[in-house]
Design brief:
Blueprint (H helix, E strand, L loop, with lengths): L13 H12 L3 H7 L26 H22 L9 E5 L5 H10 L2 E6 L2 H13 L6 E5 L12 E7 L7 H11 E14 L8 H10 L6 H10 L2 E8 L1 H11 L9 H10 L2 E10 L1
Parallel strand pairs: 1-2, 1-4, 2-3, 4-5
Antiparallel strand pairs: 5-7, 6-7
Length: about 280
Amino acid sequence: MTIQETHAPVLASAYQRSVADYWNREKNPVNLRLGEVDGIYHHHYGIGDADWSVLEGPEETRDERITAELHRLECAQADLLLSHLGPIGPDDHLLDSGSGRGGSSLVANQRFGCHVDGVSISETQVAFANEQAGKHGVADKVRFHLKNMLDTGFETGRFRAIWNNESTMYVDLSQLFPEYARMLSHGGRYVTITGCYNDAYGLPSRAVSEINAHYICDIHPRSSYFKEMAKNRLVPAAVLDLTEATIPYWELRAQSPLATGIEKAFLTAYKDGSFQYLLIAADRV
């Protein structure tokens, strides 16, 4: 299949320009140092029980042990997301929407042998990710593009699966899901792992508002995902509440030299119930 390039501007609003500028400038050690462990650079958080023994042992290697453990937890998160994409073959095409520095796309190719396109509005991220694809020897099957996930220019029905990993809070879901429904083949799968605020709590809590301000994003209420999916022929096949599973990652990160200061807000919001960490898998019908 060929890729249709869009002539629409990649950055369609002042807000999108501010987000692109943020990620073009971002060089956060918590993203870079973890990727240096094995050359897979993720831009998301972790799940699973932490190995707290990393806090023990020789002081001179403590930071290295914590960093490796945080990376293990974030890799477990990516593996869980990819395990919900359904049957994928080497000839299938997948879309990593909001692909960051490209880690999940590389893991998907390693796992399935498939074609992966990643999209980001950050020129810096796209260049970095394409460089990584070259270093891993998969540039013929894994490619990253400077594109807006709301208007990608990819052809209708191209993708067997599409995912967002902690990137939906940067876009309007009522614009996002029609584009995904268009690009997915019939019976294709969409998966997201995302933080969302709990509708039962009411409006976003103070801690959720702190997270929004930190990342210049707009965290959606949980109900919006299901409402907008239903409008666009995306039928949930699995919903997992990963809130408890992600807390150990944040507790360990809070004790890491890579902590950014936002850890307390995440832990407060998760523990008071105002914020949830969900995996949603949905089929295109």
